C-alpha cells in the first residue's frame, strides 16, 4: 500500500509511464526491484548486480539525480535499453533516496523521449521525503517479518 501511494504521487507529480523502486543491498552488491507498475516487463523479484559506471558515480557516489532524455543516453548505462524502448519509454529519471549519507535505493521514472524537462527534474526532488518514508517502511516491514518468521 505504501508503494502504491508513492506510485500515485509520482504519477501525479511527473506523469510517468513506467515506475519502479530499486533497493540497494550494499552488503550483497545487488539492487533489488521492490515495486513496479509493469510487473510483466519488470517483475518485483528482479535483481541485478550493482555495477561501477558513471551512473553509480553520480547516483550512489554523489547522490545526484540521473536523467537521460533519449534512448541513446539510456543505452550508455542500462543494458535493458531495448526492453525500455519496447515499452514506449525513451527517457528516465533515477532519484536517489538517501538516509544518513547512504543511498537506500532509487525511484526510477521512465516515459517518452525528452519527458524530463528541467521543471520535471525540479519537481522530482520534492518526491524524496515520500521515497525515504516508503523505503524505511519496507525495510521495517521486512525486519519485523524476519523476526516473526
Characterise this structure.
- By secondary structure, the protein is of the alpha+beta class.
- 41% of the residues lie in helices and 27% in strands.
- It is built from six helices and six strands; from the N terminus they run αβββαβααββαα.
- Strand 5 (91-99) and strand 6 (102-111) form a beta hairpin.
Total strands: the figure is 6
* Gyration radius from CA atoms, angstroms: 15 Å
Mean pLDDT: 92
Shape: globular
Main sheet properties? 6 strands, antiparallel
Q: Helix amount, in percent? A: 40-55%
- What's the helix-strand series? HEEEHEHHEEHH
Strand content: 25-35%
Structural class: alpha+beta
| CA distance, first residue to last residue | 21 Å
Poorly predicted regions are none
How many H/I helical runs?
Answer: 6
Strand order of the largest sheet: 3-2-1-6-5-4
Amino acid at each position: 500500500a505504501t508503494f502504491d501511494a508513492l506510485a500515485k504521487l509520482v504519477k501525479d507529480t511527473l506523469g510517468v509511464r513506467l515506475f519502479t523502486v530499486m533497493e540497494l543491498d550494499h552488503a550483497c552488491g545487488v539492487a533489488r526491484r521492490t515495486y513496479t507498475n509493469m510487473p510483466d516487463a519488470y517483475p518485483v523479484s528482479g535483481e541485478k548486480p550493482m555495477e561501477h559506471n558513471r551512473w553509480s558515480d553520480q547516483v550512489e557516489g554523489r547522490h545526484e539525480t540521473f536523467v537521460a532524455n533519449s534512448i541513446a543516453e539510456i543505452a550508455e548505462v542500462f543494458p535493458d535499453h531495448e526492453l525500455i524502448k519496447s515499452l514506449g519509454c525513451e527517457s528516465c529519471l533515477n532519484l536517489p533516496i538517501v538516509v544518513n549519507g547512504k543511498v537506500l535505493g532509487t525511484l526510477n521514472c521512465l516515459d517518452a523521449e525528452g519527458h524530463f524537462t528541467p521543471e520535471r527534474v525540479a519537481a522530482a526532488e520534492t518526491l524524496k521525503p515520500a521515497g525515504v518514508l516508503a523505503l524505511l517502511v519496507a525495510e521495517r516491514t521486512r525486519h519485523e517479518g524476519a523476526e516473526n518468521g
